């Protein structure tokens, strides 16, 4: 399946034909349904199919202006157009969750690069603010994990606007680490958490999201220094939101088998 997705990604990068792009969208939907059919999470599959195919139809019909840019962002689940992803992730676990947050986004990212809209950078900044504010209201660990992944992906797309090669490298790094981590951090439907999860997603130095954000910030620094200072302040806000995990782990004794 990974080889097939890499082939679709290469195909979407080699052409700018709308019909071929739409075919790639359709094949990615089929791949996701094929991978999740054994889990019997039918509500997630129906939601995903309806959302993706409706957006795919709009992509074909509204092939003018900046509408396609917004449609692709919504298909990927980039903040602030990410609210639909929770209806999918609530019923998928382990490797299927990892796939949804990484490989499923790869062909869409390469298409977004080809039709990017520079003013969309401000929309991505707004999306980060929405993510941080939403983290304060979430209590489910799995949703916080998904939201953290969405936020990191926003940083990667902002890097795409500045430097394509650096961002492709960052995405590959992010994808490989998510493959190793998410399967461990979402073992079951219970709100399962440990100290490794906290240290990884708390933006600790030399952790997963730390490098993604530092490299993206270094690219933004070339573009706008005031924006970089604002982003550093936002990273501090991110640490505050994940301190919810830190407090829970500090004051309660957790058993893996029971809440």
Automatic annotation (TrEMBL):
The chain crosses the membrane at residues 18-35, 55-76, 82-101, 108-135, 155-181, 193-214, 226-247. Keywords: Membrane, Mitochondrion, Transmembrane, Transmembrane helix. The keyword Transmembrane applies. The keyword tRNA processing does not apply. This is NADH dehydrogenase subunit 2. It comes from Pristionchus pacificus.
């Amino acid at each position: 399946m990974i080889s097939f997705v890499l082939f679709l990604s290469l195909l979407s990068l080699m052409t700018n034909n709308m019909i071929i792009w739409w075919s790639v969208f359709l094949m990615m939907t089929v791949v996701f349904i094929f991978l999740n059919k054994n889990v019997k999470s039918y509500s997630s599959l129906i939601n995903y199919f309806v959302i993706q195919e409706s957006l795919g139809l709009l992509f074909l019909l509204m092939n003018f202006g900046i509408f396609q840019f917004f449609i692709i962002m919504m298909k990927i689940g980039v903040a602030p157009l990410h609210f639909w992803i929770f209806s999918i992730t609530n019923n998928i676990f382990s490797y299927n969750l990892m796939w949804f947050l990484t490989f499923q986004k790869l062909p869409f990212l390469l298409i977004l690069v080809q039709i990017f809209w520079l003013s969309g950078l401000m929309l991505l900044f707004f999306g980060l603010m929405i993510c941080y504010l939403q983290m304060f209201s979430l209590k489910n660990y799995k949703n916080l994990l998904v939201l953290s992944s969405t936020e990191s992906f926003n940083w990667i797309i902002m890097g795409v606007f500045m430097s394509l090669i650096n961002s492709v490298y960052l995405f590959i790094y992010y994808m490989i680490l998510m493959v190793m981590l998410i399967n461990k951090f979402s073992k079951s439907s219970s709100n399962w958490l440990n100290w490794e999860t906290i240290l990884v997603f708390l933006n600790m130095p030399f952790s997963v999201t730390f490098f993604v954000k530092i490299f993206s910030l270094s690219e933004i620094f070339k573009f706008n220094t005031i924006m970089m200072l604002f982003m550093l302040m936002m990273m501090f806000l991110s640490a505050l939101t994940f301190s919810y995990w830190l407090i829970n782990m500090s004051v309660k004794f957790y058993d893996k088998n029971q809440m």
